[in-house]
Write a structure and sequence with these properties.
- The chain contains 7 helices and 6 strands; from the N terminus they run αααααβαββββαβ.
- It is an alpha+beta fold and 246 residues long.
- It folds into 2 domains: 2-138, no CATH class; 144-240, Alpha-Beta Plaits (2-Layer Sandwich).
- The strands form 2 sheets. The protein has a 4-stranded antiparallel sheet, covered by helices on one side.
- Strand 3 (185-189) and strand 4 form a beta hairpin.
- Helix 1 (16-40) runs antiparallel to helix 4 and helix 1 packs parallel to helix 5.
């Protein structure tokens, strides 16, 4: 493409027109990557700093590659200079990291005058991002949460709980089980303080789960079913915004 139009045989000293074309192509392709991220990301938190950084960092990468050229000495010097800089920006989402790498790759390809690679690679990356966005892999994450149940110890109730979890949850992980009121009694005393009767307390079982809801099941219906369990003493169902690994 542009490789045949540019006189870049002397990569150590590129011409002004080749530098200008490189910057413009880098800006265009990086903007394409940024727009793809904007339209294919479901996250409501899209900071403009990150969107601008994808475009700017690709231009910086192109400038660095043009400054280095074919010079080994420049490359080693640039490596030492960049090693001094400490990048502490944290990318929590791996998908954001992929888009940042795509912007960097675009800038690097344009910086070495590989415009054909840059255009075809960027087009392929953006096309793949749109395909994944509309595929089953791009659907919203199922609800994940924490379930705590305090209930009277009864094997039949345990069976009902297991059946409900199997019906409404696609994945279940039990964190811990606690038995409460073991060997505890309620004592009744008369006016003189003498114990006249003792009643053994009910043994309670506390169950803590991490769960992932099935996509076609609602959390309100699940909570209503749990409330109908016999001997239920306490029920807490909390769904997290961020998914965790089961």
């Amino acid at each position: 493409m542009f490789e045949f139009l540019l006189t870049h045989h002397n990569t150590e000293n590129p011409t002004a027109i080749s530098i200008l074309i490189t910057v413009l192509c880098t800006f265009f392709l990086a903007s394409l990557v940024t727009l793809t991220y904007e339209y294919t990301t479901r996250d409501t938190r899209k900071p403009f700093q990150f969107l601008q950084s994808m475009v700017l960092i690709s231009i910086v990468a192109a400038m660095v590659m043009q400054a280095i050229g074919d010079s080994l000495a420049r490359g080693l010097g640039m490596l030492g200079a960049l090693a001094i800089i400490r990048f502490r920006t944290k990318l929590d989402n791996p998908r954001n990291m992929a888009f940042m790498f795509a912007a960097l790759a675009t800038g690097i390809a344009c910086g070495v005058f590989g415009f054909t690679i840059a255009f075809i690679g960027t087009t392929g990356f953006c096309t793949a991002a749109f395909i994944l966005h509309f595929s089953p892999f791009g659907q919203e994450d199922p609800l994940v949460g924490v379930l705590k149940i305090v209930i009277v110890k009864d094997p039949e109730v345990d069976t009902q709980i297991d059946q409900l979890l199997l019906t409404y949850c696609s994945a279940v992980m039990m964190e811990d089980v606690r038995f409460l009121n073991l060997n505890k009694t309620d004592k009744v005393r008369n006016e003189e303080g003498v114990i006249i009767s003792e009643t053994k307390r009910q043994v309670l079982k506390e169950l803590n789960y991490r769960i992932r809801m099935k996509k076609n099941k609602g959390m309100e219906e699940f909570a209503s079913e749990l409330e109908q369990l016999p001997g239920l003493k306490d029920l807490r169902l909390r769904f997290n915004k961020e998914p965790f690994t089961l």
